[in-house]
Specification:
Length: 67
């Protein structure tokens, strides 16, 4: 269910570890994998990872392509 709400993520559950894992499916300089014991916690970690990626994205000005 969480995967359908967050289409940019693959969500898995480990029976042996009893944890949920979110693997990003969007381009990133590094693999992004987050985990938590609860679905709610995983969703929060996924949103935090998305926010961090947006904040780290270079702008046109930083790339020297300002119009």
């Amino acid at each position: 269910m969480l995967g359908s709400v967050s289409p940019g993520w693959s969500v898995l559950y480990s029976l042996s570890m009893r944890r949920f894992f979110g693997l990003c499916a969007w381009p990133s300089p590094q693999a992004v994998i987050v985990s938590d014991d609860t679905v709610e916690g995983l969703e929060q970690r996924m949103r935090e990872a998305e926010t961090l990626l947006i904040l780290r994205m270079p702008t046109a000005e930083s790339l020297g392509r300002a119009a």
